Amino acid sequence: MSLIKALVLGVLQGLSEFLPISSSGHLVIVEHLLSFTESGLAFEVFVHFGSLLAVVWVFHKEILQLLKAIPAIFQLKSPRLNQERKSYALLNIYILIASIPAALLGLVFEDQIEAIFENHLLAFVMLFVTGLIVWSSRYTTDKNKMIGIGSSFLIGCAQAFAILPGISRSGSTIVTGLWLGIPRETAARFSFLMAVPVILGATLLKLRELWINPLSPDELRNLVLASLAALLSSYLAIRWLLSVIRRKKMEWFGVYCMVISLIGIIAHLF
To answer: CA 242 to CA 187: how far, in whole Å?
Structure first.
């Protein structure tokens, strides 16, 4: 992969991974429109690792508390467990529950999913669906509901649905949380935190294959730079989206997705 291609796709991956506009859909579209060849396994590993580091960067305090609270998962009924540690232990459980649907779907239908990504028209159509999902956020109301077992599983199902190219993971999970009555910032933070085990798991699975087929020094340099580009653009995307959600303006990402989708469909057909 050339340096320019690596940087372009790295920035695109970073921005679209967490903004509600679908990273997979945009990568498929850009590779198609710019006649880029398939980015490949190595690229996926490096840029997803960059995006993962961005989440850790933004939410390092919460992630540290989650790690400290892991032993408390087995002590939830203990009277000596303070409320803060208990809440983080429960959040660990909810993140695990939310990760199950996507993990099962990815393991069972891995080959079929890879084949789906070759259909560019499907990516354009699904991007329009993402637009409708995100636009619907304007009709939700905060009911101050807490995340629980049921809501975390439903948000996890939304994350599994986002395996389709063109469906935004952040958009579908955050909006599902909003429709369940979860406060906006809580839904957004849960969406970002639940991305950690999914991205980490996918990266580790692909890393084993990459170890078998090592990269040349030039390829390694380009992909490290792509990873850094994804890290910085992901960080900016997360910060910006949190600000947009606070101002209740998320639905305009939906308009963007629908416009890009229609342009892509017309260009693809004609």
So the answer is: 10
- Write out the DSSP string of 102-164: HHHHHHHSHHHHHHHTT-HHHHHHHHHHHHHHHHGGGG-----PPP-HHHHHHHHHHHHHTTS
* Cβ within 8 Å of residue 171, ≥6 positions away: 20, 21, 22, 130, 133, 134, 162, 253, 254, 257
Give the Cβ contact number of residue 118 at 10 Å.
11
SS3 256: helix
**What's the N-to-C CA distance of the chain in angstroms?**
30
User: Cα–Cα distance between 176 and 123 in angstroms, integer?
Assistant: 21
CA neighbor of 72 nearest in space, from 81, 64, 62, 63 = 81
What does each C-alpha distance from 166 to 141, 162, 217, 260 come to in angstroms? 26, 8, 33, 11
Both tokens of residue 238? 């997360």
Given a cut of 90, is residue 108 above it in pLDDT?
no
- Comparing CA positions, the residue from 48, 71, 261, 267 lying closest to residue 167 is 261
User: What does the pLDDT look like over 240-258, one tens digit per residue?
Assistant: 999 999 888 999 999 999 9
Reduced to 3 states (helix: H, G, I; strand: E, B; else coil), residue 82 is coil
Q: How far is CA 153 from CA 31, 157, 173, in A?
A: 33, 6, 11
Quote the mean pLDDT of the chain. Answer: 87
Q: Is the separation of the CB atoms in 22 and 134 below 8 Å? A: no
Q: What is the per-residue pLDDT across 168-189, written as a single tens digit (0 to 9) for each?
A: 999 999 999 999 999 999 999 9
